């Protein structure tokens, strides 16, 4: 049912003009019915969560540079989401740090359209690459390779987030595009890629990441509706979504190779081999 603004002749059941003028105005909806404002994570718990996450990364990596890089890269990545959410009327958005897992940006309101959702999802990886700048500067200033590893890790985190599997950013960027073909195409693609990443996490010893993604996949299987509220993507927006996704992915790969090539003596094949061995797909 739609509402039309076309004027019509008053009918016998319509109220008389004098009754309408005398009737009191209806009360405004109570503001208590609105969703309560998200006050964000408790500062003390946020600090504790950050220390727990940083300590865990340092314990498994043995490098304080990598620990700092991942924490710093995580915060910049999530802040990219926050900036996009606030700019698109979804704020005030907040950042939450999850001990031993990572973080997330939470909006106050749903996006008005799937196009806004795509922009928010890609803003994190795109903006998150800026976190690598201080580590490149650290390498230039000190000549120590550890700084380059920090930059490479930041690029890898943003690149992994672009995988089209729930709840990663890539699923929110490409999901609406696949849904235009058919909702089942989106579901099957997301579940297939998600299962593949879970398998990759298991065989490469990334148990926590594998468990986290497995729980997310199970949650999506239990959900009845996959598509969020808001206007679906148009054909033009779908093309822009794919283009932005490709550009963001290429930027992540470029930053990662820029960090790894000096470690490989300027050789691209060596840099690719280093990246492959880190991801568990090399020799």
List the helices and strands and how they pair.
Layout (H helix, E strand, L loop, with lengths): L16 H6 L20 H19 L2 H24 L6 E5 L3 E5 L7 H15 L4 H10 L2 H17 L7 H13 L1 H21 L3 H16 L12 H26 L7 H12 L4
Antiparallel strand pairs: 1-2
Helix pairs in contact: 2-3, 3-4, 3-6, 4-6, 4-7, 4-10, 5-6, 6-10, 7-8, 7-10, 8-9
Describe it.
There is one protein chain. The N and C termini lie far apart (about 60 Å). Helix 4 (about 115-130) runs parallel beside helix 10, helix 6 (about 145-160) runs antiparallel to helix 10 (about 235-260) and helix 8 runs antiparallel to helix 9 (about 205-220). The protein is mainly alpha-helical. A two-stranded antiparallel ribbon has the order 1-2. Mean pLDDT is about 80; it is low at about 1-15 and about 25-35. The chain has helices at about 15-20, 45-60, 65-85, 115-130, 135-140, 145-160, 170-180, 185-205, 205-220, 235-260, 270-280, and strands at about 95-100, 100-105.
Summarize the structure.
The chain is mainly α. It is 63% helix and 4% strand.
Show unreliable segments: 1-15, 26-33
Q: Could you give a short account of the major beta sheet?
A: 2 strands, antiparallel
Strand order of the largest sheet: 1-2
User: What would you call the shape?
Assistant: globular
Q: What would you call the structural class?
A: mainly alpha
- Average pLDDT works out at 79
C-alpha termini separation: 61 Å
Share of helix, binned: 55-70%
DSSP E strands, number: 2
Strand content: under 5%
SSE run: HHHEEHHHHHHHH
Task: State the main characteristics.
mainly alpha, 11 helices, globular, 283 residues, two-stranded antiparallel ribbon
